[in-house]
Amino acid sequence: MTKVYVPTDAAARSVGADEVAERITAIAGVEVVRTGSRGMLWLEPMVEVETPEGRVGYGPVAPEDVDGLVAAGMLRGEVRDIGACLGLVEELPWMKRQQRLTFARVGVVDPLSAGDYTAHGGIAGLRRALSLTPAEVVETVVDSGLRGRGGAGFPTGIKWRTVLGAQSDLKFVCCNADEGDSGTFADRMLIEGDPFTLIEGMTIAAYAVGATEGYVYLRSEYPDAVATLKEAIEIARVEGWLGADVLGSGFTFDLHVRVGAGAYICGEETSMLESLEGKRGTVRAKPPIPALEGLFGRPTVVNNVLSLATVPTILAHGAEAYAAYGVGRSLGTSVFQLGGNVARGGIVETAFGITLGELVNDFGGGTSSGRPVRAAQVGGPLGAYLPVEQFDLPMDYEAFAAAGAMVGHGGIVVFDETVDMASMARFAFEFCAAESCGKCTPCRVGAVRGVETIDRIVAGDDRQKNLVLLDDLCELMTDGSLCAMGGLTPMPVRSAVRHFGEDFTT
């Protein structure tokens, strides 16, 4: 029987993947397997046919194309003159240049097949973790150099070490899946395409620090991810990967999904914890840090989806194997997301050190409009706008920090020459004003004053004086805000003024 793989990822479904799968399923002698997306979003829906040489891809495939492609030999994996034929998927330049560790199974396996998961290396990391002491697991993660993918890039193992050393009868592991940054979709794609790897990573984290309960805080805008993760958790319980006796080890850990209501501020870890406790999502003052007093006042590991989902491969293959990738203190791989005005948008997982230009121009193919690239915003709506003159900047936490920018969650939004950077700077303040929790004055009031100040600058009202005032306001927000919402809002504003000053004075 011929196996055909069709994505069930939300992006693919939005352009007709379900209808394509239905048409192929109706053909005798064909088994259709629904997978996650390979991440080449401009080719969705992409159909893959299993052959002795490997999977042959076809895309984009519209429902009305199926009959013609089948007649032309698609189900035999033939590579003759079929316009949609891409060739062997693993040999495509987009795939071949990547180093997929966290996303190794996404687009390859049935997301809800426990058998598929274990056949492709799943649970090996958890089995090895359970053969070690909790402290040894923590030190393995420390030695790997894994850093948080949520923004600040804090070393994951150091956070775990703190929670392990905290004295409490109850500890938690919380996954922050409130993926609200512009141009980011890796969390959603991983949960929809390989949810067991997140479950495995959280279980390893729980064993390492002595936690017995875990929560995934997942945004309500991701209904497919919510449904997939809930079903995967039920399957994991049946398989013995969660519950009172994980893999017969005597270790107890269970996991629950909590759906957020769409507040951007709940991407900040303490706001997320407040929301998990049933309160309004507002920022907590630190100290105490969540590692010591987190959910319900107990020691809590709070990590991003990609951080936790990377842990299984580190435990399975060792810290040294993971740390062999990357540069400097930015070790391992990162999942970069290309969006905005880009010809080839999607997911790229590669070692730290690749340049911004390689991602935008080589992988992304420049702009979708065909106009020259003018800027890219990296790290979400609070990230810096970088001009093409800085596209030789390596994707490296320290290199970006030195340039007044941040890697953040790895989202890259591309803009062509028609972009008005004064408007983009204004949007940063508008966004902050709308999404601020309102707890601290620099963020709550500063964002509103920022919009007013940029409006005066653009209108030509005492421009130089207001540019000085804008800089003072940015400094105040950076230094005085309670969390990164207000503290980082000045980053896109200052970068826009610094690199694209002409947009503020013409």
**Structurally, how many domains make up the residues?**
4
**End-to-end CA span:** 65 Å
**Gross geometry:** globular
Tell me the name of the CATH class of the largest domain: Alpha Beta
Find the count of extended strands (DSSP E, 2+ residues): 16
Oligomer: single chain
% residues in beta strands: 15-25%
Show the helix and strand layout.
Blueprint: E1 2-7, H1 10-13, H2 17-25, E2 30-35, E3 47-51, E4 54-58, H3 66-71, E5 85-88, H4 93-96, H5 114-119, H6 124-130, H7 134-144, H8 156-165, E6 172-177, H9 186-193, H10 195-209, E7 213-219, H11 223-239, E8 254-260, H12 269-276, E9 300-304, H13 305-317, H14 319-323, E10 326-327, E11 330-331, E12 333-340, E13 346-351, H15 356-363, E14 373-378, E15 385-387, H16 397-402, E16 411-416, H17 421-435, H18 441-458, H19 463-480, H20 484-488, H21 490-499, H22 502-505
Parallel strand pairs: 1-2, 6-7, 6-9, 7-8, 12-16
Antiparallel strand pairs: 1-3, 3-4, 4-5, 10-11, 12-13, 14-15, 14-16
Helix pairs in contact: 6-10, 6-13, 7-8, 7-10, 9-10, 9-11, 10-13, 17-18, 17-21, 18-19, 19-21
